[in-house]
Write a structure and sequence with these properties.
Layout: H1 2-25, H2 27-45, H3 50-80, H4 86-122, H5 131-140
């Protein structure tokens, strides 16, 4: 049991070390983290409900996860490709595109959650009037 716990804890140590490396070396992750903080502040201000928070947390995890995966792919390509290669560039470009798709998906989720919340807020409605009920109300009205 103790060996198992040591192996599991070592995996967490390795994962946090990898996150630290990316934080130290990749500026794009800092942009994602700054955006995450802004989105969380907006979520608190607009009093998001559980479903909206779930969507936002999913979107944040999706983008940061893809950014980390993209970085790992770039590191791997740099290891195996010693000189410029069109194929290596394609691999890096496709990995970057995956991050872009995840980011655009997160933006769409953010717009779907926050636009109705902003409209309700500007109309003087309670912040607890959430985007889900706003959208459902518009569908059935």
């Amino acid at each position: 049991m103790i060996k198992w716990a040591k192996r599991v804890s070592q995996k967490f140590v390795n994962a946090f070390r990898g996150f630290y490396i990316v934080l130290k070396e990749e500026k794009s992750l800092w942009v994602h983290l700054f955006t995450t903080i802004v989105v969380i502040i907006f979520g608190v201000v607009f009093n998001l409900n559980l479903i909206e928070w779930s969507l936002i947390v999913f979107a944040i995890g999706l983008v940061i996860g893809f950014e980390l995966l993209n970085t790992a792919i770039e590191y791997l390509v740099d290891i195996v490709s010693f000189e410029y290669s069109v194929k290596a560039k394609k691999v890096k470009d496709v990995a970057a595109t995956a991050t872009l798709v995840a980011t655009l998906t997160a933006v769409a989720i953010g717009l779907l959650v926050f636009i109705p919340a902003i409209i309700n807020f500007s109309a003087g409605a309670e912040p607890a009037s959430n985007a889900i009920s706003f959208m459902i109300g518009n569908i059935y009205v």
